[in-house]
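DM between two lab members

TW: hey, do you still have the V-type proton ATPase subunit a entry open?
JB: yeah, one sec
JB: this one, 822 aa:
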Amino acid sequence: MARGAGGGCCPSMDLMRSEAMQLVQVIIPAESAHLTVSYLGDLGLLQFKDLNAEKSPFQRTYAAQIKRCSEMARKLRFFNEQMSKADITTSPTQLNETHLDFDDLEIKLGELEAELTEVNANNEKLQRTYNELLEYHTVLQKAGEFFYSSQRTAAAQQREMEANQSGQTSLESPLLEQEMSTDPSKQVKLGSLSGLVPKEKAMAFERILFRAIRGNIFLRQEPVDEPVTDPVSGEKVTKNAFVIFYSGERAKTKILKICDAFNANRYPFPEDVSKQLHAVQEVSGKISELKATIDMGLAHRDSILKNIASDFEQWNHLAKKEKAIYHTLNMLSVDVTKKCLVAEGWSPVFASVQIQDALQRATVDSKSQVGSIFQVLNTKESPPTYFQTNKFTSAFQEIVDAYGVAKYQEANPGVFTIVTFPFLFAVMFGDWGHGICLLLATLYLIIQEKKLSSQKLGDIMEMMFGGRYVILMMALFSIYTGLIYNEFFSVPFGLFGKSAYECRDPSCSDATTDGLIKVRDAYPFGVDPVWHGSRSELPFLNSLKMKMSILLGVAQMNLGIVISYFNAKFFRNSINVWYQFIPQLIFLNSLFGYLSLLIIIKWCTGSKADLYHVMIYMFLSPTDDLAENQLFSGQKTVQLVLLLLALVSVPWMLIPKPLLLKKQHQQRHQGHQYAMLQGTDESVGAELGEHHEDAHDHEEFEFSEVFVHQLIHTIEFVLGAVSNTASYLRLWALSLAHSELSSVFYEKVLLMAWGLNNVFALIIGGIVFVFATVGVLLVMETLSAFLHALRLHWVEFQNKFYEGDGYKFAPFSFALIHEEED
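TW: and the structure you got?
JB:
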């Protein structure tokens, strides 16, 4: 059987039904288990079953190894964070295949983490000291200015006091001043504190100080010109420099507590001018030395990170690979002798040779004395569903899987979706000008797919890129239906010849069909351009598109019912053939298949019969004469027969199937006796035990539940036949809306701007037309038509045959793990 290549572009016929799967058992010697699982992960064609589901993660065999892998992953995340902070990117080189021992890597990562942590700690200490010195230097400058200005003021006051003392002491002189001047020993010694406080807290800081000390302090603040780096937080903060003069130890204690509460950093300030100058010089020297030391430390840290960056991708790949291997090994059961591991899992039948080859290579490479044993198990368990898709078919398969994963080997709607989905989209989006715009955008994505696939794209762009081949098909079908509708941005073109109609005389206007006569054969392809702009354009196109929608809907629903027949034949379910497929086909075509036939006959004969009247009175008055609504001889008899068949098909769907299922169940379990089955192999015994339990589970047959289920199914189909057919009228509604919007933008924007004979108005009109076309018609209308086509496939088409209750084949594959991470 031919199989599609993973990177190809043409769909394989294997897509119709999922790959044949098998449950396999592999007995692996303990010494080669790690390498075996690694080779199977490279192959990516075996889905392991968890044979230790009852055990917690900590009770499993390889819990310690997984903990080591998690610790390595933590260290690698730490390295990645440090590289991001230092603006160092990892090398985008390809992963080499050189073997790197897991234990050696663990030791190396530990050493690098310890070294990097030590370097960071030292740098943090040095940086904090450096920031403190910068703040201290700022305080020395600002406080020096305070003291210098205060000394000048004090000297001036002293000179003024001495001048006053040289004269007679007057009664107006302050008593305290006289007392202090006469007794210098009574002067009070004031203490001082200096530092920096955040600017936004400065006012509250000052207020609290005055309230706590009762105003017995002198506070001087000055804003620092530039933000300074706070030593504690490491962030840039705007601060004020302050100097506080106080008296007494109690006041000092209160001030210190308030400073701590407001995160005010305090620094010593010598009162002596010479000591101030010495302190400034000493701090400046230390700042320059620390700056050089910090730069050397950062250079050393960057060199370590660059060495890590060169091998980071390889180490990260190995750590994740090892963790995945040990997670998988934990799903294997350990033999009693602890000399071998037993694995069970699902694989495609075609992969048996490749899996056995991987097992053989692992045995040879690990130098094991005993080879692995590969065997296929018999089971009644439902296998996973696996479709081999490529870059073309994968997006269409995702559309189907979003509704539900196909049951094992049931017919896959994805095969038909490749054609029907873009076609139904194009019926609603038919305009070959808009289709060309979509095609150009998609061709860009396809041409640049190698470049774009390696880049980080936004959410919307990622969705568009993933569905580029879906959009390609949608664009091609839109061009096709646009040519049928004869619309290019709502403008008709006579691409396939001249119109079949011409004016009777020169007074004939292009805006009406009055006076038009048919002078040649019908327009060869699509709608005749003369219909556009005529008074009968809308009634004609409405009638055409509405009838076409019904024909397409009935055809697709019949396709779904026919696929249900092939499903029933494939699973050898004759009950579904005789009591589901046949009555459903009869019911649908007795009503809406007949309506489709009447539409075609009316088109072919040019009859003016009212089809609404025919269908309504087919039910209300089936025996009445059809009169002018008769399309063919014997129509009344045909309608009576079809109505009778439709009425008979309802109990045909409802009653026989539950009765026959009950009869089958009784025959299957008649005379059955169950006995204990014994087996030497534990896995075989467990399997037989499961089958024994399954038999007991299915022993009871609830006829009432089955009958109610069939009743619901019958009612759903009968009502759905009407509602689903009506639902396909959305093809007509969306197509009409798209055409009218396009016509409005062309006539009311572009032509109106052209008619003004003004260059500026033409430019504005052209810009508005482009933005309206792109924003409304190429974005919003595309999304709207896409969603409506999606609904028609999920509800109207797939519910006729698709169960969608399966589960995806999820093999252990390193390639899939890396794709999920990306």
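TW: got it. Residues 582 and 660 are 16 Å apart (CA to CA). Confidence is low (pLDDT under 50) at residues 1-13, 168-173, 175-182, 673-698.
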